[in-house]
Design brief:
This protein is α/β, with parallel strands linked by helices and 316 residues long. The protein is built from ten helices and 14 strands. The protein has helices spanning 29-41, 63-75, 100-105, 117-127, 137-141, 147-158, 192-197, 221-233, 236-239, 262-270, and strands at residues 17-21, 45-48, 79-84, 109-112, 131-133, 164-165, 176-179, 182-191, 211-215, 242-246, 277-281, 292-294, 297-301, 306-309.
Length: 316
């Protein structure tokens, strides 16, 4: 069980410098430039990491260089927050190269999703730092980021107050409880594929008493089934206080008859856990995504209609 005391980063303020790093795959340079320009137009300064413009196969530079970039951004006193360029693949290769003691001594805003999940889990559990599952520079900010996504991001990283209810964007269905109930715990989680991949390693996720948030993209229902079953066999879903699953983007494109739908898989694998399970929340690989602060307290209550963040994620 993770007993690491929580550390909250200082909130971002206008004029602060944000470091942009590429800890996984290389990004499209036009999108990276557009995302950087958006942050600057919103009143922030931007400093690019050394590997943002590098390419080494499917990686944005060597493992040592990408890890050094991340460590350097945390160490730099003028950098007040760090946002990842994009996901892809590569963060698991960095977990043994990070300076967790340095990160713990220099807490700051850290944002990303998808492959960045491995960093959220390892940094959160080894340092206690609250991190943010949210939009990235090339993947979102460089592609006409939606008002919904930007406002949730801004509220999460600039306001030292609880986010409160996480509501879906307009004109889409509200999240649905497939298992009703009430749960309270700290948020954890991220990309299902990454979480499953770290099981059996020193960096596997601790779900005990926590609200586990899971998302993925482009995974056929049988693969969602396989990864959830893996988490069940590892006892991770049973240990959680409650479970939240996102709108799984493009997860039924490969579903050819005979097949289950993703929702049928979720009801089958999660429906008998005797704890609240909320599905179809927008926080993953969708154009509209809420930013979730990982490591702070939240509640799942049927009567509240969904997930409510009850603890501030930043300090003033």
């Amino acid at each position: 069980m993770d007993f690491t005391p929580r550390i909250k980063p200082r909130r971002l303020c206008p004029g602060d410098t944000i470091g942009v790093i590429a800890p996984a795959s290389p990004g499209n340079q036009e999108l990276a430039a557009a995302g950087t320009q958006l942050l600057e137009a919103k009143g922030f300064r931007v400093q690019l990491g050394k590997t943002v413009n590098q390419e080494l196969g499917y990686l944005s530079g060597s493992d040592m260089a990408r890890a050094a970039d991340l460590n350097a951004m945390f160490a730099a006193p003028d950098i007040k927050g760090i946002i990842c360029l994009r996901g892809g693949y590569g963060t698991m290769r960095l977990l043994e190269l990070l300076d967790y003691e340095l990160i713990q001594k220099h807490p700051k805003i850290f944002v990303g999703y998808s492959d960045i999940t491995a960093l959220h889990t390892s940094i959160g559990q080894r340092t206690g730092l609250v991190t943010f599952h949210g939009p990235m520079v090339a993947s979102d900010m460089g592609q006409d980021i939606s008002p919904y996504t930007w406002e949730y991001f801004l509220q999460a990283v600039t306001t030292p107050e609880p986010l409160g209810p996480i509501v879906n964007p307009p004109l889409v269905p509200v999240p649905e409880f497939i298992v009703p109930g009430t749960a309270e715990g700290c948020l954890t989680g991220g990309n299902l594929s990454l979480i499953a991949s770290t099981l059996g390693t020193p960096y596997e996720i601790d779900t005990c008493g926590k609200i586990l948030c899971l998302e993925d993209v482009g995974e056929a229902p049988y693969r969602i089934d396989r990864m959830l079953t893996q988490l069940l066999l590892a006892g991770k879903l049973q240990a959680a206080a409650g479970i939240v699953f996102d709108v799984c983007t493009d997860c039924e494109l490969e579903a050819k008859p005979p097949s289950f739908t993703v929702e049928e898989v979720l009801r089958d694998r999660l429906g008998d856990l005797n704890k609240p399970v909320l599905i179809n929340l927008y926080f993953g690989h969708t154009a509209d995504k809420a930013t979730l602060p990982l490591g702070v307290k939240a509640t799942l209550r049927t009567e509240d209609g969904g997930l409510v963040i009850t603890e501030a994620a930043t300090t003033a």
